[in-house]
Amino acid sequence: MYRINLHHLAPDLSAAGVEYADAQIDEVPPEKVRELLDALAALAPQVEYPAASELRISDGEALFIVQVKEGVVRLTSWAAPNGGGEFTAAQIMATITGTEVSEGERAAPVAASRSPGLRSALVGLMAGVILGANGVTAWKLLRPPPDDLPAYRLLEPDPARRLLAKVAGSYETGPAEGDRSLNISVDGAVHWVTYGKQRAIAEESALMAQAAQADGRLALLTSDRALIEIAGPLRVVFYDDVYERKAR
What we know:
It contains 5 helices and 15 strands. It has helices spanning 30-43, 89-97, 118-125, 138-141, 157-167, and strands at residues 2-7, 23-28, 54-58, 63-69, 72-76, 84-86, 152-154, 169-172, 180-184, 189-195, 201-214, 217-222, 227-232, 235-238, 241-245. Strands 8-9-10-11-12-13-14-15 form an 8-stranded antiparallel barrel. A 6-stranded antiparallel β-sheet has the order 2-1-3-4-5-6, with helices on one face. It is α+β, with helices and mostly antiparallel strands. Helix 1 (30-43) runs antiparallel to helix 2.
């Protein structure tokens, strides 16, 4: 069974927008996870900025972030090849469950419409609810090579959880246009944003991070093969930029 968090999505995935509150569904069986993925894939071409619609799917151990970007769904997870990318709903489900994509779905395009009964199925599932536009800048293209890393080792589960709990929070290089922010969650999800005018989101990326030690210092290894260095209780360094923790 899975836990699913919805962001910028209607409870039945019939629409997307910033007006929809975040929601969580517990105890979701695999077949309903697949229905949600199909629904998100069908909705993806209609999602427009500033909505940053996503599903976060957890089995209690691994986290899978499924985002809508430029009209398609993209997966971010340590369990995915190369940390993720543009996948079909079938490929995402296979990654989540650790199975192979069936031959009939291997090259299948993203579904363009939903089955008639999907909406009612999702509405019933949501009875258990408990309660951005993206691009690649020249700066990102000029980042250091992703595998140009110092020697590192991943931390054991208990110290890893403690480090993530300690580091979790929001950081930024500054508030001006062109500055960037990092939001680090206790589950290792990282939301990386570049500010536009008046702190509007100009670009954003979803990453996953694992607690590590590199050159004798604590750090987080991200799914794009870069290190977030822990420079102190209020400061982290990512791609040579210094991020200060924002006031709580």
